[in-house]
Amino acid sequence: MQNQIFEVALGIANPWYIKDVEFDAEQKSLSIHIDFIAGSRFAYPGVEGVHPVHDTQIKRYRHLNFFQHECHLDVRVPQFPGGRIALVEPDWAGKLNGFTLLFEALVLMLARQMPFAVVARIVGESWHRVYAICAKYVELAVDAADLSDVCAVAIDETSCQRGHDYLTLVADAEQRKVIFVSDGKDAKTVESFAEYLSTHGGDASQIDSTSIDMSPAFIKGVTDQLPNARITFDKFHVIAHASTAVDKMRRAEQKTDSDLKGLRWALLKDRSNMNASQCAYLDALITHITTKRTARTWLYREQLREVLERKQINVVSSLLAQWCTNVIRSKVELMKEVAKIIRSHFNGIVTWAQTR
């Protein structure tokens, strides 16, 4: 009766059955021994039909805990001599050696919410085993990826670990998910993406829109490898240049004005992410330092943000051109550099307003 309960709970069906159950209270472990009916025939991967068992091997799988006790399935697995000795994995076997599918599903679910080290402590496995499970499923998902419908992508780089090691990420702009990752941040990463696309049902010529930063390497890569892609430069990267100018101006002026010290994050934060009291504080702050070039630099950035929030392409084009003219005529040298960058990438920025 006990074995039948476990068979139902584990979903074990003919020809498999539970031969024995061992519970060790001191070790806090449960071992379930699984066998198959004598004379059973099995299908082997890559070989037609069902075949008799040549030999067997006991294989252990880590399963979900039985309450607070570790649970392992000790399975007598059939072997088949097809050129090389091959094991017949049961249906509940996971993708990584030594785990069941349900245990791997638990690890994947936890890994989405917390670091691998925490997951390892919860499930009682090493960090390396948890990482190996996740890496295996990522590899399987990448191999099975179908990119035949991808026509618009966003390309950006990010630093990894410490120092100046960079990764380039390519995301499907419509599905809003990462579809390709490569080391580096040069034009070769776009070439690698084009090759990857062709091996997963897509084609470089089908990409009609690409959102990138204003890196010359990415511009060259997209121009050479994605011939039909319309290049756009998104608001985030444009505003990032303006924010850098604000911070540089603050740093320069705070050397002679101590009132500007400690204001870095207040000046860099997006007003849309502030509550009413924070906005009131920032407005009072800007009014107080209105004679400073830091304040004028901040105001120019906020004006730029408002321009790029517009959705009509003709309005964006007109207002952005006027913004550049106003900044060039000002005495804020750092923001003039931003205006020059915008003018040299003007069409791509305006196009982004249409394709976002």
Uncertain segments? none
Would you tell me the structural class of the helices and strands?
alpha/beta
Provide the number of structural domains.
3
Q: Give the helix tally.
A: 13
Shape: elongated
> Cα distance, first to last residue?
62 Å
Mean pLDDT: 87
Major sheet summary line: 5 strands, mixed
Radius of gyration: 30 Å
H/E element order = HEEEEEEEHHHEEEHEHEHHHHHHH
Share in β-strands: 15-25%
Number of separate strands: 12
Characterise this structure.
- Helices cover 46% and strands 23% of the residues.
- The protein has 356 residues and is α/β, with parallel strands linked by helices.
- The relative contact order is 0.06.
- The model has no long low-confidence stretch (mean pLDDT 87).
Short description:
With 356 residues, the chain is an alpha/beta fold.
Task: Walk me through the topology.
Layout: H1 2-10, E1 16-24, E2 29-36, E3 42-43, E4 50-51, E5 55-66, E6 69-82, E7 84-87, H2 101-111, H3 116-123, H4 127-144, E8 152-159, E9 166-172, E10 177-183, H5 187-198, E11 209-212, H6 216-225, E12 230-233, H7 235-254, H8 264-268, H9 276-288, H10 293-309, H11 313-329, H12 333-344, H13 346-355
Parallel strand pairs: 2-6, 8-11, 11-12
Antiparallel strand pairs: 1-2, 3-4, 5-6, 6-7, 8-9, 9-10
Helix pairs in contact: 3-4, 5-6, 7-10, 7-12, 10-11, 11-12, 11-13
